[in-house]
Amino acid sequence: MTALTDIDIIRLLRKNNLDADTLQERVVEKLMRKNLKISTAESCTGGLLSERITAVSGASEVFDCDICSYSNEIKHKILGVSQETL
């Protein structure tokens, strides 16, 4: 597994002509165009991803659900993460 620093991520975004501040808007627009929905499962981010997506006007059309869990029990029972992974 490769760990990226925030500087690495910013470089990747810039290389692909993406702006970290407006990325969620592009994601919501693309999901709307393709008539797709998104759900997220977060832990270390504390719900940041879902917060950024739901802050976009119209996100309710594409955003279904978020589960934010720090608990390994919830990750295993609700999200199906294996005990080995945890």
Q: What would you say this structure looks like, in words?
A:
- Strands 1-2 form a two-stranded parallel ribbon.
- The mean pLDDT is 90.
- It is α+β, with helices and mostly antiparallel strands.
- β1, α3 (48-54) and β2 (63-68) form a beta-alpha-beta unit.
- The chain has helices at 6-15, 23-33, 48-54, 72-77; strands spanning 38-42, 63-68.
- 40% of the residues lie in helices and 13% in strands.
- It has four helices and two strands, in the order ααβαβα.
- The protein starts with 5 loop residues before the first helix and ends in a 9-residue tail after the last helix.
List keywords for this structure.
86 residues, alpha+beta, 2 strands
Give the SSE map.
Blueprint: H1 6-15, H2 23-33, E1 38-42, H3 48-54, E2 63-68, H4 72-77
Parallel strand pairs: 1-2
Question: What's this entry about, in short?
Answer:
By secondary structure, the chain is an alpha+beta fold. The chain has helices spanning 6-15, 23-33, 48-54, 72-77; strands spanning 38-42, 63-68.
